[in-house]
Amino acid sequence: MADALIEAALAARQHAYARYSKFLVGAAIRCERGVIHAGCNVENAAYPQGVCAEAGAISSMILSGSRQIEEVVIAGGGTGPCTPCGGCRQKIREFAGPDVRIRIVDPDGRTLLVRSLAELLPDSFGPESLG
């Protein structure tokens, strides 16, 4: 596989801590500097306290000093595409424009779905909405 973003999402997925759901998710984002940042889901016995893979990747990007998402890949499992939850769509929106491409891949790296952020989060509220 020659796609570094997909490879990073798949590698992150392998490190997910999904003790309860057994649903592994990895995410990788490419920032404005071309650097890839990855994250995995981390569950918690107090279910709502877990962290999504996308949030982990965004935190890594922010820690590195970057502030702009250029592309996203999410690698999940299950029977269909693992699209970002509503909260993660809004987190991505904070650092990405409406045309940013979000690719959803299966555990083998095959692309299942490609959407723009605007398609996943139409009429979104973002930083510029605050004036």
UniProtKB/TrEMBL annotation:
Its EC number is 3.5.4.5. Its cofactor is Zn(2+). One of its GO terms (cellular component) is cytosol. The active site is at residue 54. GO terms for biological process: nucleobase-containing small molecule metabolic process; pyrimidine-containing compound metabolic process. It catalyses: 2'-deoxycytidine + H2O + H(+) = 2'-deoxyuridine + NH4(+); cytidine + H2O + H(+) = uridine + NH4(+). Coiled coil: none annotated. InterPro entries: APOBEC/CMP_deaminase_Zn-bd, CMP_dCMP_dom, Cyt/Deoxycyt_deaminase, Cyt_deam_tetra, Cytidine_deaminase-like. GO terms for molecular function: cytidine deaminase activity; identical protein binding; zinc ion binding. Keywords: Hydrolase, Metal-binding, Zinc. Zn(2+) binds at residues 52, 85, 88. Residues 1-128 form the CMP/dCMP-type deaminase domain. Substrate binds at residues 41-47. It holds the Pfam family dCMP_cyt_deam_1. The keyword DNA repair does not apply. Belongs to the cytidine and deoxycytidylate deaminase family. NCBIfam families: cyt_deam_tetra, PRK05578.1. This enzyme scavenges exogenous and endogenous cytidine and 2'-deoxycytidine for UMP synthesis. This is Cytidine deaminase. It comes from Lichenicola cladoniae. The lineage of its organism: Bacteria, Pseudomonadati, Pseudomonadota, Alphaproteobacteria, Acetobacterales.
